[in-house]
Amino acid sequence: MRVTLLGAGDTTGTPTVGCDCDTCEAARERGVERTRFSVHVENERVDESLLIDFSPDFRYQFLREDVPLPDAAVITHIHFDHLDGLGNVFRVFDSLSVYAADETDPQTGKSVAETVRDDYHYLDPLEVRPTTPLETIHVCGFDVTLVPVEHPPLVCYGLAIEDPVTGAKLSITGDTSYNVPEASREVLADPDLLLADAIVPAHLCEYHPAGGRHETDDGVPRTFGTKHMTREGALDLAAELNAERTRLVHLAHYYPADEAFEEPLAVDGEQYEL
Ligand SMILES: [Zn+2]
Ligand SMILES: [Zn+2]
Ligand SMILES: [Zn+2]
């Protein structure tokens, strides 16, 4: 299993357009970036690739990393930074299966699969595959399981990707607070590599209107507002999941410049062989 981090950033990316903060300036100086979230997972055994989320930066990411176009894709949720690259399918793919959860979202009255189908009904190559969370499907030679996470007000899913032949396992938290349900934790547990949402460090919770929550015994918030984990929350979750290796992703340019490029914060283009 070859994992390529196509986009390790949050919804504005780093550098953010029009931003001259120290972190965006430092990224430019270092020649690194964090585009909108997407992960490419290649199965060399069957010569197929699975894409996790359609970043608005899809075209640029594939030109930059020169990885094979995917044979199938998963959409974790309907936020812009995970879904709105799907229009890139037009005239690039003859057909593409897109897997997304089949549970109705009380907020929209539709499942992620139904929203994908409705929003991109004009894309003939698209074959939407409604998928039941916590039930394993087989795609690109992998066992793939969507797991509910907490990203209010929308439903959102993390996922585990395992190669049943080699035993390699990748877990992705999806956009989530630290409050990942127990049944989902069981599926995500013991990965060779965990990609965990860690949008900001915990000390920035004081700037969020909703503050932080899910504090440690020492009062350190593991959730930023209600939607995302802090760096500290993501690292706690990684320890609880017994992750062999962890990279923090979905990172905002609000990380102070002296923290933004420290380990284990990911940047675009990192590649892992599991
Ligand atoms: Zn900035
Ligand atoms: Zn989101
Ligand atoms: Zn996001």
Automatic annotation (TrEMBL):
SMART domains per the UniProt record, alphabetical: Lactamase_B (SM00849)
A Pfam family cross-referenced in the UniProt record is Lactamase_B_2
| SUPFAM superfamilies reported in the protein's UniProt record | Metallo-hydrolase/oxidoreductase
| Residue stretches making up the Metallo-beta-lactamase domain | 35-203
* InterPro entries xref list: Metallo-B-lactamas, RibonucZ/Hydroxyglut_hydro
Domain of life, per UniProt, equals: Archaea
Q: What is this protein called?
A: MBL fold metallo-hydrolase
Species of the source: Haloterrigena salifodinae
Give the organism's phylogenetic lineage: Archaea, Methanobacteriati, Methanobacteriota, Stenosarchaea group, Halobacteria
